[in-house]
Amino acid sequence: MTGIVEKLSFLYQWHALAVISIGYVLGELGHYLIGVTSKAIAIDLHFGDIACQLNNTNYHLSELPFPCRGANDSDTCLSYNINGTPYCEWNYNGLGLDYQILAGPSFIAVFTIVGVALGFAADKFNRVKMLSVCTLIFAIAIIVSGSVNEYWQLVLLRMIMAAGESGCNPLATGILSDIFSEDKRALVMSIFNWGIYGGYGIAFPVGRYIPPLDIWGTGWRITYYGAGVIALIMAFLTWFTLKEPERQSIGENATSDENAKKVTIWTVILEPRVIMLCLAASVRHCGGMCFAYNCDLYYQLYFPDYDLGWWLFAVTIVIGSIGVVVGGIVSDKFVAKMGIRSRVIILALSQIIATPLAFGSVFFKPTWAMITLGLSYFFAEMWFGILFAILVEIVPLKVRSTTVGIFLFVMNNIGGNLPILVEPVSKAIGYRESLYIFYVGAYLLSSFMFLGTVFLMEGPKKPEGQPQKELSGFDNTVFRGDDHTLPTITSLVQNGKKNSAESSRL
Fold first, then answer.
1. How far apart are CA 22 and CA 199, in angstroms?
2. Cys bridge to 186: 44, 115, 328, 405, which one at CB 3.0-4.6 A?
3. Could you read off the pLDDT of 226-261 as tens digits, one per residue?
4. CATH hierarchy code of domain 14-47+93-454
5. What pTM value is reported for the model?
6. Cα(219)–Cα(215) distance, rounded to whole angstroms?
7. Measured between alpha carbons, how far apart are the two ends of the chain, in Å?
8. Whole-angstrom Cα distance, residue 304 to residue 248?
9. Residue range 392-403, pLDDT digits in tens
């Protein structure tokens, strides 16, 4: 039996990645499911905006004598008919300030604060056990969300869900970077962070097609019950099948290095390149969250005669997955030759290409909207995995999880809360136009901000009296083996396995 276990040990890395990633997908499914089920929930719980909407799928918009959206009161709305058959309904549409608060700020407020606390804890305690507990918390919150009868109950459970899910990224980032070596890091981080888009993509068919089945008379509630139960299973798998990996550190193993003791969270997060990277990520996250929260509602509002649920699922899951993998592989291949700058360059270029395609996904009618959305996703979804591969490579081990927690705190507070402005802006200039600003505009601005970050990724200076050595990257103190001993972000951590006088500067 021992021999069989040893022969299969090479599968452990990928088993760990699968368990952690699937758990993250389920957490994100619970997070984004509100965007697809909001109309059904609003009708049930009575919150948000009431508007005139098409309720007859037998007609296309071009066949209607009057568009439903043109009616401003129930009498006018219900008077619209074709041969005596009404085709509009006056009901909750799932939008409004109540929805934006439910989708964004109520979740983000807790997610960011608890995420920082868990980031600090991850640098000191068993990360696998903490991740298991976090998964258990958001799993229970998702299940209970399916039993609510009041709006405030749903808000409260969204906050509890956020508390549990907030630990996924800082905990999993540390675990996976200690399990996998540098040559696979961007790919692994891309696969894990694709969980955001995996959960978001799965939410479309789950939220659109399962509630109408009215399984056991539960309607929209069954989607939360199902997602939560599967998340419970992943919590138990995390606890019982994963083990805490050894924290990989090369530079910090040098106990005689006095400079290593000077590394603090402040010296790291106040680095200009970390600040710039965080601000660029915050703007890009705003664009992603804006579209995630409004995508399904936007297409239902402007094209109610088209069923785009499966198209959105395919674009997100299939094309988004390809983009994630390609981004990770390309980044890993280039970084070995060009260093950390190559990851940032790839990150910037992918978002620049995605920007005009994102515009097309909102500007065009359904056919071309789905085509441009798919192409946009291919390039746009490269960003998250590459971003965190960069982050863990420029941050020393002793504050790595804490830095990730703070990074996510800032990124989510800015990027996660700005989409709430879609509501007042849409009232002023239109829903589509507000997406041009907060979705497409955020992509464009973040592209140039990422490009500017490239120039802050400086290499080490040649020490006096020492021959120039080719150093194209940074020692993240999480690399395996002596072949990866490159200088750290702070230049304060030396390689304990080789006596070298080289160091880098802040």
1. 9
2. 328
3. 999 999 999 999 999 888 887 765 333 334 445 545
4. 1.20.1250.20
5. 0.70
6. 6
7. 51
8. 53
9. 778 877 777 678
